[in-house]
């Protein structure tokens, strides 16, 4: 087999493959015998047709079947011989084959480009690490969320207040105010003053009692179109928050003995959450700093494959609702390109730092998960026996090892952020 490799760019290769007849003959005879078994000819049993007779009538067909059956074999032999790993299906062109002659073709495909890391030394990457300084308001807000999560609903007759729920019927109206047949929606839940209601609409809803109604203008689609509805109240329900008593504390956590112990427990979780938020942002900043410094090239087919899987994931999360695939692809294209670049750099860092992960490391991680929720040990161990789940865990741990290795080359700027400033920004959004 003769192979010529042409480098088109960083990620595209063209192979010219030429196999002499001497290396093809035995495979060709297999194709002849196989064809003979599948063809019928008067006067001959299946598989017993004389070779010359068969070839005189069906040689072009046999040659075509031979090429179909053997292209992949010789193509794989060629890429293995050259030490190339295609990341997409090859484009095949200029195919030539006839019996007693050579078999030749061109194959164009993409590979993962070979990239070079910069010289990794101290302070070569500039990153930022944030320390979040929380306050009592964070604790109060978190406790309020706990109370809301354990709230009960009570039917009220004294008229709706802001925050109450209206269980109602909505009748869509046309532009002249006439009810549209088939557009009556029963058992709808609307929260007074929440969602896409203007102040004017909110005022119309406040004070409503069962049997009463009003007219509202509501959005009917994501593109901003509104329509008039006649609202008729069936019921008004109010959220009743639990009292901060012993019963509530035990409901939250049986080990809690006082409101103060609840506040300490909540504060601990707040600190952990903000630390995790800081760590996630720092790791992202660290990997982005290397991506920006190297700006590695990538095979477009790898991005396409990534996007295809991502679109499928988005569809699953959308509960079967129709999506514009192209819009989703456009939206996620920057993320896909970024992640493919980081994937390539990850592999280089593993090689550069001689980083590895043992089975014992994985087992230790699973054990720590078990220790965190001992009542779920059986489920956890069963979950990670599945190869795909174990692989995800492995990837996550490897990511951690890579980032810890990379951090030693970073110049870190420490920044303090008051959580009250975050609350203001989040409120604006």
Describe the structure.
By secondary structure, this protein is an alpha+beta fold. The chain folds into three domains: 2-110, Trigger factor ribosome-binding domain (Alpha-Beta Plaits); 125-135 and 249-295 and 355-428, no CATH class; 152-240, Roll (Chitinase A, domain 3). Helix content is 49%, strand content 22%. The protein contains twelve helices and eleven strands. It has helices spanning 21-38, 51-81, 136-149, 199-205, 246-252, 259-294, 300-317, 325-353, 359-372, 377-383, 387-407, 419-428, and strands at residues 2-7, 12-19, 91-97, 103-110, 125-133, 152-155, 165-173, 179-191, 213-219, 226-240, 410-418. The strands form three sheets. Strands 6, 7, 8, 9 and 10 form a five-stranded antiparallel beta sheet that branches. A four-stranded antiparallel beta sheet has the order 1-2-4-3. Helix 7 packs across helix 8. The longest helix has 36 residues, at 259-294. It is extended, with a radius of gyration of 34 Å. It starts with a strand and ends with a helix. The mean pLDDT is 90.
